[in-house]
Specification:
seven-stranded antiparallel sheet; about 20% helix; six-stranded antiparallel sheet; alpha+beta
Length: about 270
């Protein structure tokens, strides 16, 4: 399954610093196969970077200047993963980005049954027939039903309701036997996440002290150690990571919870 992380920083200028401080320094790994994708909000558009695992850049280096307060990235470095642009998460629709990690689905008519609930204009946007992308479109269909998919601003509670509806429908599409499923979606202001049948992890803290990206901790003959602190930055991260803690400081969320990091850094939790 896809490993993913969504990272929020209350000050977008320090978004890269938040990633470096939260998710093992934004390291990807050195396996020869697989893919990594990063999505964030820069300027007036959503920006995506997708590369094979093993390329020279880590997550932090793939993030450019951002105006949104969060970044989503996914890593699939399983032995069977091959790099294909259209199948590399996160997926995008307008100002929405989505990460979906889903186990094996054996039901042959799953796509047909799912797309019955998706408006035609959303279905046409699909670039693959992967269950992960189709589930992202299903989530967007619920935002559409709320009448807010075109709105520049939407309450975080509405995004959570759409995610809860997605999780409630999936067992019905699979006759009550859903595979492990974890999702994380952002719209540039709010970030929401949930999981069923697998673990979802969260970490939150105030202040990046010291910043692992901006500091120079090693002392040399010509330079003293230099530590940079961003004390006013609030950081929230949601992660799915193969059933184990993604990094030090993460705590496992209770099963059946939909969580959100709002544009102010407030954490909201609701039951599915």
């Amino acid at each position: 399954m896809l490993r993913f992380c969504g990272v929020f920083a209350s000050d977008h200028r320090h978004l890269k610093c938040a990633v470096a401080a939260t998710c093992q320094g934004g390291k990807v790994g050195d396996r020869p196969k697989g893919r990594v994708g990063v999505g964030y909000w820069g300027g007036d558009e959503v920006l995506l970077m997708r590369r094979p695992v093993g390329a020279e850049s880590g997550i932090v280096q793939m993030i450019g200047p951002a105006i949104g307060n969060h970044v989503l990235f996914g890593i699939d470095d399983s032995q069977t993963a091959q790099f294909r642009l259209e199948s590399t998460s996160p997926f995008r629709f307008r100002n929405y980005l989505g990460l979906v990690s889903v186990g094996q689905i054996k039901q042959k008519d799953f796509a047909e049954r799912l797309l019955f609930h998706v408006p035609e204009y959303l279905a046409r946007d699909a670039r693959s027939d992967l269950p992960s992308e189709l589930l992202f479109l299903l989530y967007l269909s619920y935002v559409h039903d709320l009448g807010r998919i075109e709105a520049p601003r939407i309450a975080p509670g509405m995004l959570m309701d759409a995610l809860r509806s997605t999780l409630m429908l999936v067992p019905k599409l699979l006759d009550g036997s859903p595979p492990p499923l974890a999702l994380c979606v952002g719209n540039g202001r709010h970030m929401v996440a949930a999981a069923i049948g697998t673990d979802l992890w969260m970490r939150s803290f105030d202040g990046i002290d010291p910043c692992p990206l901006c500091s120079e901790p090693e002392r040399t003959v010509d330079r003293d150690s230099r530590f940079v602190r961003h004390r006013d930055v609030r950081v929230v991260a949601f992660a799915h990571h193969d059933g184990i803690a993604p990094a030090q400081g993460f705590a496992k969320l209770p099963p059946g919870q939909v969580v959100a990091a709002t544009s102010t850094g407030e954490i909201i939790s609701r039951s599915v």
